[in-house]
């Protein structure tokens, strides 16, 4: 069995998302692949808890992992360490799941998954993922940039 190729990576700042949006448009046209997005930690931030420990934990990762998957329908997801009922947590953090987005999963370990209504722009999806991911990482010292991992 051939190992899957490593993803293409793109580092970007939330106020300079043009490169990520271009990649989202390409993937949306092809109907294949997905993009994972994660905030970078400040150099002074201690490393997240061990993933080995996470095997036995009821929580997701300390550093949110946001995912955008094009298609009909387009879906977004966030793995997080915020515990159960993250829809309510996000509402309390003033980053509620947008009206019309249908939440299909809200699990403490597997994360949040939502289906976007037809016609939702890639920029709207990306903006919300960055805001929600930042809000869920408020307990961490972030570096101010994100990494996109593009899987084709």
Q: Could you characterize the architecture of this molecule?
A:
The chain has 152 residues and is α+β, with helices and mostly antiparallel strands. It has helices at 18-30, 51-54, 86-92, 122-136; strands at 8-12, 34-41, 65-69, 75-79, 102-107, 111-115, 142-151. A seven-stranded antiparallel sheet has the order 1-7-2-3-4-6-5, covered by helices on one side. A hairpin with a 5-residue loop joins β3 (65-69) and β4 (75-79). The radius of gyration is 15 Å and the shape is globular.
Brief descriptors of the model:
alpha+beta, 26% helix, 152 residues
- Provide the residue-averaged pLDDT: 91
Secondary structural class: alpha+beta
Radius of gyration from the alpha-carbon trace, in angstroms: 15 Å
Distance between the termini: 18 Å
Helix content: 25-40%
Strand order of the largest sheet: 1-7-2-3-4-6-5
Q: Secondary-structure element order, as H and E? A: EHEHEEHEEHE
Unreliable parts = 50-56
List the total number of helices: 4
How many E-type strands?
7
What general outline do the C-alpha atoms trace?
A: globular
Strand content: 25-35%
Largest β-sheet summary: 7 strands, antiparallel
At a glance:
By secondary structure, the chain is an alpha+beta fold.
SSE order and pairing:
Blueprint: E1 8-12, H1 18-30, E2 34-41, H2 51-54, E3 65-69, E4 75-79, H3 86-92, E5 102-107, E6 111-115, H4 122-136, E7 142-151
Antiparallel strand pairs: 1-7, 2-3, 2-7, 3-4, 4-6, 5-6
């Amino acid at each position: 069995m051939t190992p899957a190729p490593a993803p293409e990576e793109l580092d970007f700042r939330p106020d300079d998302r043009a490169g990520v949006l271009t990649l989202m448009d390409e993937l949306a046209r092809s109907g294949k692949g997905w993009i994972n997005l994660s905030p970078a930690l400040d150099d002074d931030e201690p490393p997240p808890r061990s993933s080995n420990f996470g095997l036995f934990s009821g929580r997701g990762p300390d550093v949110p992992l946001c995912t955008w998957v094009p298609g009909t329908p387009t879906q977004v997801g966030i793995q997080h360490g915020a515990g159960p009922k993250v829809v309510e947590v996000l509402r309390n953090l003033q980053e509620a799941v947008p009206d019309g987005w249908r939440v299909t999963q809200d699990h403490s370990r597997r994360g949040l998954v939502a289906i976007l209504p037809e016609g939702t722009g890639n920029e709207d999806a990306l903006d919300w993922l960055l805001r929600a991911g930042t809000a869920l990482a408020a307990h961490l010292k972030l570096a101010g940039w994100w990494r996109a991992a593009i899987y084709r």
